[in-house]
Amino acid sequence: MYRKSGTRGFTLIELLVVIAIIGMLSSIILASLNGARKKGRDARRLSDLKQMQTALELHYSDNKAYPATLLPLVPASMAAVPTDPGSSSYTYISNTTNNNYYCIGATLEGTVPAPADGCDGAVQGGGFVEPTGNYRVGP
3-class DSSP state for residue 51? Predict the structure, then answer.
């Protein structure tokens, strides 16, 4: 085999340029995936809220009252009480005087779908404290 005597491979500058280009491309890809992760967590939150809402309605149809906490729903209507996929948590509040009203709140990271507030504390005489979060569901 014949080998040219001046050819030695890539120079340090060429390698640094290639590494810089790869780094820039990977940062662009990771930045675009971050938005998809937020949308995925929000979709999970909305699904969890719907699951809790359905379980609460089943409990109400059986007992003619909403529970004070979500724990009585397990294992009858849910396998476990859902936990928020991010750093926040779901907030559940029920009307403790006659147990005929509830509201569940969650904090969404992205665009909040309409209606953002499905709870109406005024229906409960104005004394009902609504849970935290930028998206809430009720009966």
Answer: helix
Give the start-to-end residue ranges of the domains of the chain. Answer: 41-137
CB 66 within 8 A of CB 94: yes
**9 — alpha (psi -120 to 50), left (phi > 0) or beta?**
left
pTM of this structure: 0.73
94: tokens are 């029920």
Tokens of 40: 């995925």
Distance CA(102)–CA(85), nearest Å, equals 22
In this predicted structure, the answer to whether residue 37 has a pLDDT above a threshold of 80 is: yes
State how far Cα 108 lies from the chain centre: 6
- pLDDT tens digits for range 52-78: 999 999 999 988 888 988 898 888 888
User: For residue 8, what pLDDT is reported?
Assistant: 72
Among 73, 79, 88, CA closest to 41? 88
